[in-house]
Amino acid sequence: RRRFDLRGDGVLLVQDAGAVEALELDLRLSALMRSLAYVTPAVAHDLRAQLYRHLQVLSLRYFDKRQTGALMARITHDTRELESILTMGAQFFLANVLSLVGISIVLCIIDWRLFLLALAPAPLVTIVSRLFWRRIANVWGRWWHARGRLSAVLNDTLSGVRVVKAFAQEQREVERFNPRSRELSHAGMNA
Hints:
191 residues, 7 helices, single chain
């Protein structure tokens, strides 16, 4: 007759229970993600509507300082990016956090000293991550501004296409567009 060994059998029991729990959690996460995919477009719509409502109460001075195309790009593109983050980003973030928690629990059960050793570089990783994200925020900020300026040129040209054609200014508009497009391309490469 075999005796129950806490080190061997106990770990297997915890692993089996963890596998069952992980499967149940996966099913719940799938249901949550389906719900999120349904709710996200409504949230994006509400955000666009609030932004539009807010634009209506701003002074003319505000609009004098900003290009129409840049404002349009911010409203449409930024809400689309938010939609993408809510649907895809939330799913990956939640899955990674849950994996990290699960791995930490199992590692702590198997050998708590190894768990503490694995946590040792956490402060350094946190500091480096913060520095990295500050730089990334600046780079993406330049990309957003470049995208807004390109959208402004497009808006100006397309809304005034009859005037451009009437005065044969197509080449001038191409020369206005190309530097903005190049600027966005460079900003995208840096991002």
